[in-house]
Design a protein that fits this description.
This protein is of the alpha/beta class. The chain contains 17 helices and 36 strands. 22% of the residues lie in helices and 25% in strands. Strand 28 and strand 29 form a beta hairpin. Helix 2 runs parallel beside helix 9, helix 5 runs parallel beside helix 6 and helix 6 runs parallel beside helix 7.
Amino acid sequence: MNRRRIEGHPIIEIPKKKNVSFMWNGEMLAGYEGEMLASALIANDIHIFGHHSKDGSPQGMFCANGQCSQCLVIADGLPVKACMTPLRHNMAVRSLEGLPELPEDDRVPALKEPPLREVEVLVLGGGPAGLCAAIELGKLGVDTLIVDDKSKLGGKLLLQTHKFFGSVEDSHAGTRGFEIARILEEEVRRLDSVEVWLSTTAVGVFSDRVVGVVKGNIYRKVKPQRLLIATGAREKMLSFPGNTLPGVYGAGAFQTLVNRDLVRSSDRILIVGGGNVGLIAGYHAIQAGIHVVALVEALPCVGGYKVHADKLRRLGVPIYTSHTVVSAAGKERVEKVTIAAVDRNGRVVTGTHKTFDVDTLLIAVGLAEVNEFYTKGEDCGMEVYSAGDANEIAEASAAMLTGRIRGLKIAASLGLYQGDIPETWEEKERILKSKAGAILEKEKPNEEKGVMPIFHCLQEIPCNPCTSVCPEKAIRTEGGKITGLPYITDVSLCKGCMNCVFVCPGLAATLVDYRKDEERPTVTLPYEVWREKVEVGRKVRVTDVDGAILGLYPVENVLTNQKKYPGTLLVQVKLEKDTAKRAAGIRVQEPQIEPSLVYEKEVPPDEAIICRCERVTAGEIRTAVRQGVRDINQLKALTRAGMGACGAKTCRPMIWRIFEEEGVDQDQVTDRTDRALFVEVRLGILAGMRREK
C-alpha cells in the first residue's frame, strides 16, 4: 500500500488491517485504521510534521512514546501528538507551521465532577513489571486496576523480536519479547479481580491521594489504597549540532516503527550507543531490511552483552568504540552524520572525523526512570511502590521478577498475603539486574568425531535456557550458576537434536556433526534475518564469533521448527575440519564503503539544541551558568528552557549535564519545580466537555 510498509519479516507475522483514507495538507493518503498518525505519515514517506515557530526548524518524530511533543500536528482542528493519536477514516491532518490556532469555541461548559473509581491497587503501566505484579495480586483476589496509555498490553515487550535471556522458569528465556507480552496478557485476562484500562493516560498525582487519568477523552479520578508505578523509562538524548533534525530517533521509537507498526522508516542508519538497547536495535533494523552502516560507542568497549555485539559483527556491522557523534546534517532531515574518536577524557581527537551518508541516526545512550509519579505519590503521603525501569534501569527479564516481588509485598501490606517472599526471588532479581561479566577465554571440545554443540558465549550473563531444553540433560553452566558459561558434560551424550541451537537468545550455539564426514563436518548455524540470502545451494560468507570471514560456502540445508521455535532458521554448511568449531554466523550486509575522512566544517557544539520545545541551545544555557545561575527555575525564566509542552522530560538531564561540565557541584543547583500535570491535557477534557465527531 505504501512503499515504506514492511510486507515480509523473518520473525513477525504480517497482520491484516483495515485500510482507511486521510488527508494530509490537502492530499489524500492511505493508512491503517487505528495505527498512530506518525506511523501512517512515515509509511507515506512523510518525515517532516511541521516547522517550529521560533526558527522555522523542521520537526519530526523522536520518542514515539508521548514524551517529547516533537511530533505535534493538527488533526481535525486540534493540536495532537502524532505518535499517540490513532488514525480514523477521513481524518483531516495538517502540518503544524508555527504556533497552533485555538479552535473557535464560545461554549461555557457546566463543570462536572469527574467519575471516581476506588480500588485496592492501581498499577500505572502495563509492561513486564506491571503485568507480573498484577498477576500476583490477581491470584490473591486483590482488586487491581492496570492503566496503560497504549492500545495493547506489553509495554516494550511488544517491540522485541529477539529471544529473551534469563531462565525459562522466571522470565520465559528463549521466548521472543512480543510472545512473552501475549503470554502475560492472557494470564492477566484470566484473573477476575484485575481490570485493564487501555489507551488511558495517567496525568497527575494529587494531595488528596487521587490519581488523575484520561480515558476515552474523559477525565477520571482513581483513588487507590496502594499505588504501583511501573511506567518504564524514557530515552536520554545527546547534545550535538543537528540533534533535532527529523530522522534523529530514540532507539525505542525506531523499534516502535519497524517492529510494532511494521514501517521501514529508513534505508541507512547509524547507531550511537553500544548498550543492549543500541545493539538490539541494530539487529532489528537488519531484520527489517535496513542497512546499518555503523554502531558508535564512546567507551573503549560496548556496554551491552557481547553476544548482542557479536551478532551485529557477524552480520557485517562495523562497531567503532571510543567514538562519538559530532554532528548530524541535512536540509530538512538527516542526510549525513559525522563521528570522531574520543580520548579517555571524552574529548574529540583532531583528524579522526568520519562522515557517513545516512537518513537516520538512532540515539541509544541510556534510559532515565519515569519516576515522577512515584516521587509525587510519596510527597502526597500515599503508599506507593515502584517496579521495573521506573525503579531501576535493567533488563525486562529482571522487571518481570521485580513485578512479582512487588505484587506480593503490596498484597502483604493489605493483609491479603500472609506468607514470605520466596527466598530465591530476591537473589534471582539481583542476578538478573547485574551487569555483564568479564569476557573469558574458553576452550572448545577436543573431540573431532560424533556430534556436539559449540558454545560461542564467552561472557558471564544471566542466561541458561540451553540447560533446560537438552533432553539428555548434558548441558550445564559452570558452577551451576545462571551466569556461568555453558558446556557439555560429555560429548558422547549429544544426539544432535539441535534444541540448544534453536533456543539460544544470543545465537551463540552451533552444532558440529562429524558423523558423515570427519574431514568436512556439517556445521549448523542459527539465523534470523533475510531468508532469501540462505537458500539451499546459495553460497554464504561464514564468519567466526567476531565477524571475521572464514570463507564462502554453499548452503547444504535449512531447517525450521516453527511450532516450538518460530522464526529461527538453522543453516547447514560443510566446512573444513580446522574451521568447523570456529564458525559462528553468516555475513549478510555487503562490505561498507569507507566513509569520507574529510570533515569540512566543525560546527560549534554550542549550537546543539538542548530544549527541543523552545529551541534553546547549549550555548545559551552555558552562558547563563557561567553568569552564576544555579536555579533551574531561574534558568527557565531567562531562557525558556523547560517551558515547553513536554515539561522538560528531554532537556532536564542535558541541563544537569551542562552544570556538571561547567564544574558546578550538583548540591549548589536548585532543581525545577514540576507542574501539577505530568502530561498535557486539553482544558475541555478537564472541564468535562464532550466533542462531537
